[in-house]
Amino acid sequence: MTADPVLRLRQICLLARDLEWTSNILSTAFDAPVVFRDPRMAAGGYLTNTHIRLGDSFLETVSPTDLAWARSSTQTRLLERNGDCGYMAIVQVPDVSIASRSMAVQGSGRGIVAGDWNICPGSPGSGLAGVESGRYVLGDPLLKAPRTVSGVNVQFHPGDFGTLAEIQENWPGHGDFPGNKGVYFPAGNAWQNGVDARPHGGVTTGFAAVEIAPRDDDPKEVCKRWMNGLGAGCSIDPAQPATLRLSGGQTMRFVEPAPGKRTGVVGVDLWAIPSVDKRFDSMNICGVKWTLLDHPDHVSEETEETEETLPG
What pTM was computed for the model? Predict the structure, then answer.
């Protein structure tokens, strides 16, 4: 059974003390623009953020406000313990009503940490004017009404999944890959307008893998929780019992944390742009190791082209 093509690692979230400095470093390193700052998050008073577009996937950076530091929020305590670090892995699912229920019962069965639905009049790329939102109820389906765009995000406890875990379903255009210009609410609803002119940045087309180091649990057990929670045909290779295979060649790897080292999201692999010299092999930013990989489909295509041009 193969994974549903919608089941993709769609976003990675980082946590940083200095939002502007970190976002500028990331945007320069990946030659990719900041496309969205969530005004509703800023209005909450505790967090500000940026979203950088890597193809049709996104790299978010979140930073606590002065109020959050004054009141010692979850994010400020994590920064005090780990410094700048990986914060969350976000996977797109084909049906949030199914995946939310199965994710909620994994591990301790603590259920939802947070969840919201969003809906507004318009179409992909038309902006967020008139957006409405509310608290998501476990097991509810995503509302898909004519002449509207909508999305649901649901988060689950890092103690069960090795890092703060989030699943997403958005509508319409949820499964149009690559070059997706469908709705993806976390990055707003205007980023789609730049995809034709610039499908991706100058370094990567998107995520190949995320590496997660659980703090207390066996990596193989955490991998099984993700598999059982996400469903939709994702699988574990018996030869790699701590690696979960999603669609499009993406994986989620679960590893033992190094002594005294960070836990949670500790590494991210990125697909290199085919036929372009790599800017780097690997580097560390915001407490995460970033590695550029050749997509196996592109490697095989280049090999076939070379063989066709060889004499004899």
Answer: 0.93
